[in-house]
Design a protein that fits this description.
Helix content: 25-40%
CATH class: Alpha Beta
Bound molecules: S-adenosylmethionine, iron/sulfur cluster
CATH architecture: Alpha-Beta Barrel
CATH superfamily: Aldolase class I
Number of strands: 13
Strand content: 15-25%
Distance between the termini: 22 Å
Order of helices and strands: EEHEHEHEHHEHEHEEEEEEHHHH
Strand order of the largest sheet: 1-13-12-11-2-3-4-5-6-7-10-9-8
CATH topology: TIM Barrel
């Protein structure tokens, strides 16, 4: 298994283009005409799980150097960047990681981000992706701070399968209790993400579907992706969404739903009997780069324009530089990056045009 991880401290950075002129007049679009709508913010590179597809234990062991606290963007810095992104068209913020609920004082950051507005005065859609391990304790506080909703990752209902996948022996009952706590706190609609790996948890597809039918929770099946450089991904470990869908539809017929927003990652289906909705995120077998409007901000402030990127743009240097930029200049620098963006890795996967450089790790730029 390849174990080459891009060391975070010297992850290579890309130059920032000069601030784009006329920011504010027109929200920027990239080289392929895609707007910037969705910002994912990684608030920590640490995690209490060691899912093999994300942070395999052999690589992220006790010798792994996580970022020191001074390297992390502070809450003021994150909020300032969120304001700049909102001025450029971002309408949705997703906090992620690592495990975002491990970041101390996360509730204060949420309260600060809840006050950010679009240029026409609307609050942003503020959400979070979590492994659910802390929700029993934290759900009510996150809601009170201003979080709108959340997504919980859960890869199976069978305790042995789930514990093998999180690789730290975390019991499934505690995640299910966390989901109930989030529902009780009003953090809905809740989504549950299940990464499907052939031969690992494919036997959990139907139990998961059965469990979340009629619950008001939307279960989404994610194809195992070749993110990062440490999980040893192989195509034969991917169970294509079409096959997952076929297995579910054989049990409970499905009817297609239209996308709820442009650039949505999941293909949505409804149970024909009124049992609710399921989604399929098929980055490997059905690339959806064509309308990808997502940017990612790493834990220490690098801007990545694709989940499969190797390099990011150092926005923290702009915030902490000797000659700090005005808000307009900061937004101009981000717009400059976005207008040069031509990423479409999933469409190029397997071709000579796809990057051959080691890709940045998912827990560092967020899912
Ligand atoms: N720790 C949080 C969690 O697990 O929800 C947030 C960060 S995690 C990196 C975000 C999402 O990425 C999770 O839903 C996880 O299952 C997914 N993910 C991580 N590695 C993946 C991979 N190789 N293929 C597909 N999804 C992956
Ligand atoms: Fe942690 Fe989430 Fe990665 Fe699992 S997927 S190791 S919970 S960051
Ligand atoms: Fe967006 Fe990159 Fe994923 Fe394509 S591969 S959908 S450009 S993040």
């Amino acid at each position: 298994m390849p174990t080459r991880v891009i060391p975070l401290q010297d992850a290579r950075t890309l130059p920032l283009a000069p601030p784009a002129a006329g920011v504010g007049a027109q929200p920027p679009t990239d080289v392929l005409g895609r707007p910037l709508r969705d910002l994912r913010i990684s608030v920590t590179d640490r995690c209490n799980f060691r899912c093999g597809y994300c942070m395999p234990k052999q690589v992220f062991d006790k010798h792994h150097q996580f970022l020191p606290h001074a390297e992390l963007l502070g809450f003021e810095e994150i909020t300032r960047l969120a304001r700049a992104f909102a001025s450029l068209g971002v309408e949705k913020l997703r906090l992620t990681g690592g495990e975002p609920t491990l970041r101390r004082g996360l509730e204060s950051l949420i309260a600060m981000l809840a006050a950010v507005r679009t240029p026409d005065g609307r609050p942003l859609d503020l959400t979070l992706t979590t492994n659910g391990s802390t929700l029993v304790k934290k759900a009510a506080g996150l809601r009170a701070a201003g979080l709108n909703r959340l997504t919980v990752s859960l890869d199976g209902l069978d305790d042995a399968v789930f514990q093998r996948m999180n690789d730290v022996g975390f019991p499934v009952a505690d995640v299910l209790a966390g989901i109930r706590a989030a529902q009780a706190a009003g953090l809905g609609p809740i989504k549950v993400n299940m990464v499907v790996q052939r031969g690992v948890n494919e036997n959990q597809i139907l139990p998961m579907a059965r469990h979340f039918r009629h619950s008001g929770i939307v279960l989404r099946f994610i194809e195992y992706m070749d993110v990062g450089s440490s999980n040893g991904w192989r195509m034969d470990q991917v169970l294509p969404s079409r096959e997952v869908q076929r297995r579910i539809a054989a049990e409970w017929p499905l009817t297609p739903l239209s996308a709820s927003a442009p650039g949505e990652t999941a293909e949505r289906w409804a149970y024909a009997d009124g049992g609710g909705e399921v989604g399929f995120i098929s980055s490997v077998t059905q690339a959806f780069c064509g309308d990808c409007n997502r940017a990612r901000l790493s834990t220490e402030g690098r801007l990545y324009t694709c989940l499969f990127a190797s390099r990011g743009h150092d926005l923290r240097a702009l915030l902490r530089g000797a000659a700090p930029l005005s808000d307009e200049q900061l937004a101009g620098a981000i717009a400059g990056v976005w207008t040069h963006r031509d990423d479409r890795y999933s469409q190029l996967r397997g071709t000579a045009a796809a990057t051959a450089e080691p890709r940045v790790e998912m827990h560092y730029i967020g899912g």
